Amino acid sequence: MDIKELTKIKGKMTFTLRNAETGEIEGRLVKRNIVVTEGRAVFAARLASDTTYSGSINYGALGTSTTAPANADTQLGTETFRKAISSYNSVDNIAYLSFFYTATEVTGTFKEFGNFIDGSAAANSGQLFTHVAIDITKTSSQTLTIDCEYEIL
Q: For 9, 45, 98, 102, which has the most beta carbons within 10 A of its beta carbon?
């Protein structure tokens, strides 16, 4: 009898808008996302001792494209602002990553978010790991925290 093992990565992202002065929550959005082929390929390469990429997610980016995320995506549709990871941790088989956008560093209406392996401050750099469609409008009086959870099943 063959044993069939199914391994997958399950991702959940929580987007929280807070009043920058009071800290009061002004909006929250929870979304499931796709881990794109490019992101999964980095992990497969690491398992095979290919050290081209570290496998570490280090940047998150907001964008304005309304095109639906797809498995074959290699970058956001229209990246508009990128930020280095704020905090990270893992417990058992779950990775926890957070990105924090201050009140004054970025404003606008965002339709997509993605995070990147081995990215830099330059737009579209690094290997896209996840891509998710969102609908968030952030003002200069709000902060935005994006908490990502990736569970390896």
A: 9
Name the 3-class secondary structure at 51. Answer: coil
By CB atoms closer than 10 A (0-12, 13-18, 19+), residue 21 is exposed
Domains in the chain: how many in total? 1
Rounded to an integer, what distance in angstroms lies between the CA atom of residue 124 and that of residue 29?
24
Which pairs from 51-57 meet CB under 8 Å and 24+ separation?
A: 53/117, 53/118, 53/127, 54/117, 54/118, 55/117, 56/117, 56/118, 57/85, 57/88, 57/97, 57/115, 57/116, 57/117, 57/129
Domain that holds residue 125: 9-152
In single-letter form, the type of residue at position 125 comes to S
86: in domain: yes
Please check whether residue 2 lies inside any domain of the structure: no
b/e string for 36-72 if b means 16 or more Cβ within 10 A? bebbeebbeeeeeeeeebebebbbbbbbebeeebeee
Q: Establish if 44 belongs to a structural domain.
A: yes
The pTM of the full predicted model, rounded to 2 decimals, is: 0.92
